[in-house]
C-alpha cells in the first residue's frame, strides 16, 4: 500500500496488517473468530485493484458481470472462495473451515461481494451449485463504501438475482454502509444512484437487510431524495472500517465472552 500513488500516505494506519488488527480488536468479545484478508490479485497502473480470481474485469479494471450466465465459466467466485478458505484453514494450526462465514468487501472489494450476490441469487437452487459448502455457511454479505472506476454496478443493481434470492430458504443478511466519499462526489454521481437502487431493491423484495451512512466515525443523516455535495478526503473512506456496526454482520448465535 505504501507504493500506491493515492493511498501511500495512509499505509501506516490502513495497511492489511493494521486493518486486520483493528477488526480483530473489534471482534475480541466474540469467541472462535478466524479473520482472513484476501488481497487483490492485480493492480492496474498501480491504482485500480482487480480481484481476477473472483470477478472478470475489463482492460481498464472495471468489473464486468455480463458473463454470469451459468454455473462455471466466469461464475466461479463462490467455488474459488470455498477452496481458498479450505486451504487456508488447513494450513493454520487450530483453524477450522466448519464455521459460519461473514464476507465483507471494502471499496473495490465490494465488486467481489456483488459477484457473490449475483451468483447465489441466480444459482442457489441448481444441483451444480449445491456442492459448494461455503454457500450454506455464509450468514451475511457486507459492502463497505463500495466503489470502482466504472459507471454501473458500483452497488448491486441487477434485479433478477436479487429478486430470486427471495426463494432462498435461508438467505444471508445483506448489509450496506457508505460515506460521503463515495456518495457525494459530483464527478461520480452514479455511485449515489446505484446505492439508492440497491437499497430500494432490498426493501421491495423484502430481503433481510440493513444499511447506514457514516461520516467522521459517526452516523451521518443522508437523503436519497436530495443528494448532497460534500467534499471529503480519502480518510473518510477508510474510517468506515473503524465505525461500521460489525456486530450486525455476525451470526446471532455467536458466543460473546464476558
From TrEMBL:
Protein name per UniProt: DUF2235 domain-containing protein
Record-linked InterPro entries: AB_hydrolase_fold, C2orf69_mit
GO terms under cellular component: mitochondrion
Domain of life of the source: Eukaryota
Pfam families per the UniProt record, alphabetical: C2orf69 (PF10561)
Amino acid at each position: 500500500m505504501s507504493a500506491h500513488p493515492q493511498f501511500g500516505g495512509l499505509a501506516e494506519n490502513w495497511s492489511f496488517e493494521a486493518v486486520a488488527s483493528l477488526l480483530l480488536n473489534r471482534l475480541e468479545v466474540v469467541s472462535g473468530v478466524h479473520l482472513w484478508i484476501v488481497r487483490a490479485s492485480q493492480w492496474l497502473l498501480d491504482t485500480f485493484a482487480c480481484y481476477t480470481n473472483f470477478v472478470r474485469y475489463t482492460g481498464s479494471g472495471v468489473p464486468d458481470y455480463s458473463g454470469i450466465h451459468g454455473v462455471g465459466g466466469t461464475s466461479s467466485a463462490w467455488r474459488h472462495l470455498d477452496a481458498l478458505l479450505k486451504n487456508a484453514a488447513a494450513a493454520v494450526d487450530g483453524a477450522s473451515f466448519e464455521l459460519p462465514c461473514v464476507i465483507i468487501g471494502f471499496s473495490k472489494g465490494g465488486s467481489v461481494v456483488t459477484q457473490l450476490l449475483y451468483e447465489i441469487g441466480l444459482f442457489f437452487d441448481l444441483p451444480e451449485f449445491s456442492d459448494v459448502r461455503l454457500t450454506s455457511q455464509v450468514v451475511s454479505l457486507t459492502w463497505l463504501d463500495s466503489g470502482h472506476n466504472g459507471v454501473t454496478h458500483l452497488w448491486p443493481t441487477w434485479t433478477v438475482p436479487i429478486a430470486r434470492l427471495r426463494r432462498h430458504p435461508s438467505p444471508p443478511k445483506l448489509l450496506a454502509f457508505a460515506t460521503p466519499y463515495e456518495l457525494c462526489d459530483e464527478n461520480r454521481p452514479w455511485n449515489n444512484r446505484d446505492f439508492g437502487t440497491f437499497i430500494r431493491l432490498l426493501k421491495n423484495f423484502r430481503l433481510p437487510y440493513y444499511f447506514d451512512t457514516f461520516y467522521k466515525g459517526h452516523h451521518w443523516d443522508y437523503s436519497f431524495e436530495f443528494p448532497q455535495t460534500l467534499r471529503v478526503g480519502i480518510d473518510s473512506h477508510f474510517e468506515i472500517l473503524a465505525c461500521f456496526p460489525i456486530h450486525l454482520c455476525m451470526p446471532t448465535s455467536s458466543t460473546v465472552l464476558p
